[in-house]
Each structure stands twice: as C-alpha cells, then as structure tokens.
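We examine the record.
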Amino acid sequence: MNFLQQLTADRARELLNYAPDTGAFTWRVARPNGAKPSQPAGSRRHDYMILRLDGALKHIGAFSTQEAAHRAYVERKRQVHAACTI
C-alpha cells in the first residue's frame, strides 16, 4: 500500500484485532518489525491510538469533541514538523 493512500476499514481489519471493551488493538498478522499475532499494537495518546500501518503513522480512535480531534492533529503536526507554529 502506498503510504499516501487512506487506510480503509477493510485494511485495518486485515491487520488488527480490536477489543471494544478495553479499546486495545492487537496484531492479527506478523509484522515486519517482529511483532507477532496477538501482541499489542500501537501506543495510547489521550483519546486515541497511534499505529504504524503500511509505513505510515495512523491515528485511530474516538474523540470526545471536535476540539479534541483538532488538538491531536496539531500535536502530531508539531511532532513531525518541529518548527510548526500552528
């Protein structure tokens, strides 16, 4: 998958298991970085998870408000672009 393409729900389901009761993601398949099926996937950031899928970082989660989603977006932009002033 080209890293500029959008992650589809079908592709996420190919790669990940999701436990709605805990909000945890686990790998469904072995990954190039050595992660094995059933191992935890991603890292939690506030109201969402960050996962590397198909070579690109993806934010997955439910945001309580549009402002929370925007804060997450701005936080990620600042991480990627240290000189960002937005």
The chain has a mean pLDDT of 77. The first strand starts at residue 16 and ends at 19. The chain is about 25% helix and 25% strand.
